[in-house]
Each structure stands twice: as C-alpha cells, then as structure tokens.
Specification:
413 residues, alpha/beta, Peroxisomal Thiolase, Chain A, domain 1, 2 domains, 11-stranded mixed β-sheet
Length: 413
C-alpha cells in the first residue's frame, strides 16, 4: 500500500432485504431471498416477471416531502443511504472542511425510470402534463449532485455510469482520491431504480433475465446448474470513506479498511464476458497488487455471481487464473441470490456486505445453490454461512460492456 490509508466509518443501505446498516445485516443473516413477482407494474407481457423490489421505503421519512418530490427514485435512494451512512459514522459535517469532502456515486441507468413515466404522460396529456423538473432528475449525475447539494459538499463530485461495475468503481475511485490526499472524507456508493416497464422489458427482450417465474425466490441462483439469467433489482448502498488517522483521532468505529482497487475492460462484447476471463483476472490481480498482498492472503471472495449462464463459469475461470492451486481453498459466495442484481448499485451493496462480514467475522452463503454447475467447482458456500475471520476480502463486480472492477478490504486493526 502506498499513500494515505482509507477506512470505512459509515454504512447506509436501501435494499430488498433491509435498510440501514442493521437492516442489511439482519437480511444477510436471515439467509433467504427477497425476490418475488413484480408488483410495481404489470409484468405479464414479459418472459421474466420477478425482481428484487424495495417495498417498505418512504423517501419522505429521510428527505421530507418537498425534497422527495424534486428527485427521482434513484436519487432518493442515494441521498437516503448517504444520510444513513453519515448518521452511522458519527461525523458532524458542520465541523468538516467541505472542500475536502466528496460525493462519488455509480449508477447504470440513473433516472431512466422517471423519464419513462414522463414520456407516458407526454403521450397521453401533451407537453403540459410533463413534470418541468424532469431534465434535472433523469441525468445520471443527479445522484452525486443531490448528495453534494444536500450536505454542502464542494470537493470531488462524480457519478460514473459503467453499468453493473459502477458502484464498485465509485468506491475504488474514492479510495484513490483520499489516498492521493485530494480529499479526507467521501460518500461513495451506487444507486439504481430500474423497475419500470420499458427498462425492465428491454432486458427481458434480450433474454438476459431469469424466467423462473413460478419460483421467484429461487430465480437468482449464482453458480447453480439450473440458473437461467439474472434477476433485476433496485436499491442503493453508500459507504463513508475517511482518511484513517483522522478517523482514529476522533474515536470512530472502523468497519474495514479499503486497501486495493483494480479496473480493466474486456474490449470484446457489450453483453458477453471475454472467454477465459483474462481481463477479469487482471482486475483482481491489480487490486491485490495495489493492496500489496498475494492470493494466499485472501480469506474470502465476494463474487459478482450474476446467475447468468456465461458470467458464472467465466468468473470461476478468472479466480482460478489468479489463485492457482489455492482457488478451491478460498471460501467464495455470490450474494445476489438474496436480493437480485441491482445493476450499478450491486458493487456498493456487496462492498457494504464485505465490510460487515469483516466486522462480524461471518461470511454469507450462496443461497439457492442446490447443485453446482460442474464449470463452477470452487468453494461457493452453498446452504449456510460460515464463521471465519479473514484478514483480507476480495470483491468482484463485472458489467455490461466488459467492465471489470475488484476491491480489496482489510480487517480493521
């Protein structure tokens, strides 16, 4: 490791299995899926009809009625999770240097669902029926901008749109920014709210999603021989990243330390991973090098595990490339069986899970893994979680367009 050290001192989450740091961890320990039949709209026209929905979220509770009305659901998620992370951290922003505080977010689709709704209003009621604020809510950067405006943050502000890896990339870039002494404190994570008919239907149209409609809770099944596609989900997670010495000086509780980040791209296909997983392996190897550790030091891998026919065996091959003969000895789990695939938010949700797993010395299982695909022959923790105390955790996030991101977390010392 070079440069300044970066720790996680706050966690906020809005997910199908629970909200807030405690709700997220309770959902993980429950070891059951929250995926069910879509109720947000009529899914009957589509081959796929299940999703990971956040049904008990009231943005007014976190933002008030006036603020909530001005934001799309993606920004509502992002800002609410940021508020939770701030409260969890114990930081008083009024005492902070706002020029040294940042907001880095990731989202694959941003406010596209609201744009879809407003287009329907335009078709039925003309231009006067359209919300005049739509232009300020549908652009992807609204997530980090709303966080910055809400908290008066004048430091680094960025939302990346690198598909399903964007939440992990936001955390990785925030880590690098603090490491380089360009900020002291950053809200970093991902948010996604894609559950609208056209957006959902577009992924159903390309046959990317599971059609296990008679068993929604079993539809997302990473590494299982009977997996048939990912399950779309919504949600958000935000981590409060902080320079380590100042966190210790203020007596902060530290969940884990961010020590490595790797980023590569396949340059191969918009939807299919590069056969063999060479670039995914390179992202992992880069993250380990940045952390100044080797494969033998990693005690748990949180896999991307999208539950798609191509991704899961490709990730398995990539892990084998990096870990060699030790690949079968490292416990690995894909947690999307719990909540589905929240696209740009997934990497951030999984980073939060890794930090909590490090804190609680317990790693989650791959639920719905009944019969492993012979091409996915590593220790993917079927059935139940495991009490363990890994010093280093690796988390993978791969996305459409061939984006590969990997993060390494170290147990708090």
């Amino acid at each position: 490791m070079t440069g300044r050290r970066v720790v996680i001192t706050g966690i906020g989450a809005v997910t199908p299995i629970g909200a807030g740091v405690d709700g997220l961890w309770r959902g993980i320990r429950a070891e059951r899926s929250a995926v069910r039949t879509v109720s947000r709209f009529d899914p009957e026209p589509f081959r796929s009809r299940c999703a990971g929905q956040v049904d008990d979220f009231d943005p007014v509770e976190f933002l008030g009625a006036k603020r909530s009305k001005r934001m799309d659901r993606c920004s509502q998620f992002a800002l609410s999770a940021s508020r939770m992370a701030l409260e969890d951290s114990g930081i008083r922003l009024e005492a902070e240097d706002r020029d040294r505080t940042g907001a880095l977010m990731g989202t694959a689709l941003g406010g596209v669902a609201l744009g879809e709704l407003q287009h329907e209003r335009y078709l039925t009621g003309g231009i006067r029926a359209v919300d005049p604020g739509v232009a300020l809510t549908v652009f992807a950067g609204a997530a980090s901008c709303n966080v910055a405006i809400e908290f008066g943050i004048t430091g680094p502000n960025l939302t990346n749109g690198m598909s399903c890896a964007s939440g992990a990339i936001a955390i990785g870039e925030a880590f690098r920014t603090i490491q380089r002494d360009e900020a002291d404190l950053i809200f970093a994570g991902g948010s996604e709210a894609p559950l609208a008919p056209l957006t959902y239907g577009a992924f159903a149209l390309i046959r990317a999603m599971s059609t296990r409609n008679d068993d929604p809770a079993g539809a997302s099944r990473p590494f299982d021989v009977d997996r048939d596609g990912f399950v779309m989900a919504e949600g958000a997670a935000v981590l409060l990243l902080e320079e380590r010495s100042r966190a210790i000086a203020r007596g902060a509780r530290v969940y884990a330390e961010v020590v490595g980040f790797g980023l590569s791209n396949d340059a191969y296909h918009m939807a299919a991973p590069l056969p063999g997983g060479g670039q995914a392996a390179r992202a992992m190897a880069m993250a380990l090098r940045a952390a100044n550790i080797g494969p033998a030091d990693v005690g748990y891998i949180n896999a991307h595990g999208s539950s798609t026919p191509l991704n899961d065996p490709t990730e398995t091959r990539a892990i084998r490339t990096v870990f060699g003969d030790r690949a079968g000895q490292v416990p690995i789990s894909g947690t999307k069986g719990y909540y589905g695939h929240a696209l740009g938010a997934s990497g951030a949700i999984e980073a939060a899970i890794c930090a909590l797993a490090s804190t609680h010395r317990w790693i989650p299982p791959t639920i719905n893994l009944a019969t492993a695909d012979p091409a996915c022959d590593l220790d993917y923790l079927p059935g139940t979680g495991r009490a363990t105390d890994p010093e280093f955790i690796l988390s993978n996030s791969f996305g459409f367009g061939g984006i590969n991101a990997a993060l390494v977390f170290r147990r708090a010392d």
